[in-house]
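# nightly structure sweep
# worker-07 picked up a monomer target from the shared queue
# config: single-sequence mode, recycle default, output format = structure tokens
# input follows
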Amino acid sequence: MVTNLTQEAKAKWAEAIAARDPETKLRLLREFYSVMPKHKSTEKLELSIKRQISSLQQEVERKRTRKTGSTKLEWTVKKEEELQLALVGRLQPAVRVFNTLTGLRINVYSALMKPVIGAFKALNIRSQIVLTPMDEFVGDEKRDKFVSVSRNTDALIIVVDETNYIKRIRSWFEERNIDITSSKPKVELEYTPHGGIRIVGRSEHIGDRDTFEFLKSFNIKNAVVKLSNDATMDDVEDAIFGRVAKKCVFVMLKDLYTPVGNSIKFYADNKEKFMQDLLKSLGLLRVFTKKIGSEPGQEPLLMNNGSKVIDLAYRIHKDFARSFKFARIWRDGSSVKVGKDFLLRDFDVVEIHI
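# output follows
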């Protein structure tokens, strides 16, 4: 159900979104919360705004401590590998799986102090694993921080060693406006500096004009809106308020009699098998590139299922895409000359001609 915010509340939200300074944004979010209606259909939004306010308070405090020379630990992680994954789970099982994958020997105490980072290498793929344990013993404040870290990774690996954990972890992410039940959001909203409102895709449930007017009511003037076939106005509103969908794989440590959509088994003694299942569950293809007259590189690039040759060209460099003429692909022992819209498959070797 759409929350039916007042124009005053929508205007205040537009101000908050436009603000770049954390202290200004924090003040405007507090003002938005004070004027927004409070009823059954706004309960999720209320919780989300409280979380955002709390996160901004921490950000403002971090800026202040940096200015005073404090050595307070930062909860930020820079992506340094082809794939960055947050490893989520109950504290002890999560630490155990992290140590197995990375070869490190992290103890439970260290895992609670800040996000611990390790490298998981298999099948010539280098991935960065960020340990973000979450259970009742971690505490609500640190769960907020770990969720914030995991939100910015490429995908989540959720370690499951008991049936009830699946329900709890979904609830914790849901409270923080993150959907881990679907790998792709029904609506994607990208703010742009100019160009007006552009709607990409078509939904069976809402029309372009309704979507356009709804966005304008929030004073959104420039944005690209991507709609899936089953998107509703609720989904559009979720996108406006920052709800995201994260790719997620449940790693089952036991044979649990609970239906989980995207799940794989953990192979402690076979990292290659585990990496292979992980890539398949995340919908990722291994694509090797080669220069003209050279051998293919040893480490593949990871592309999403459904990617085309032109997507790979953009991935390498935007100039490759702009000057693209054709590509030659080696697949199943033979090569073929293809155009930019040719669909990639796992293990393709691609040579781009410009």
